[in-house]
Amino acid sequence: MTERQITFTVQLDAKHAWAFAQFLKRVGFNDYRPLAVDVDEAYLMVEAGEAIRTELRAVGYAPR
Fold first, then answer.
1. Domain total for the chain?
2. CB of 21 within 8 A of CB of 61?
3. How far apart are CA 36 and CA 51, in angstroms?
4. Whole-number Å distance between alpha carbons of 7 and 55
5. Is residue 30 exposed (0-12), middle (13-18) or buried (19+ Cβ within 10 Å)?
6. pLDDT confidence of 27, banded at 50, 70, 90?
7. Rounded Cα–Cα distance for residues 28 and 23 (Å)
8. Which domain holds residue 51?
9. pLDDT at 38 (0 to 100)
10. In this predicted structure, what is the pLDDT of residue 18?
11. Burial grade of 10 (CB within 10 A; 0-12, 13-18, 19 or more)
12. 28 contacts 46 by C-beta, under 8 angstroms
């Protein structure tokens, strides 16, 4: 069984888009883990962050 995919739209000005892209570049598993109920949820958080980072990259917000 495939899980349902969610699509959503967010409007950000350039400053917020850049700042969030920077955050997603810098955050890692060790940052998510204390906020998750378990390791599996932490990995899901990382994966969700990477999906958002990919979309930010696609619209020109990809800090190196």
1. 1
2. yes
3. 18
4. 11
5. exposed
6. very high
7. 10
8. 14-58
9. 98
10. 97
11. exposed
12. yes
Structure tokens at 20: 């969030």
pLDDT > 90? residue 2: no
In a domain, 45, yes or no: yes
Residue 31's pLDDT band, with cuts at 50, 70 and 90, is very high
- Number of alpha carbons in the 13 Å side-chain half-sphere of residue 27: 21
What's the pTM? 0.87
Do the domain assignments include residue 5? no
Asked, for residue 63, whether it belongs to a domain, the answer is no
> Going by C-beta distance under 8 Å and a sequence separation of 6 or more, which residues neighbour residue 28?
46
Q: Is residue 31 a part of any domain in this protein?
A: yes
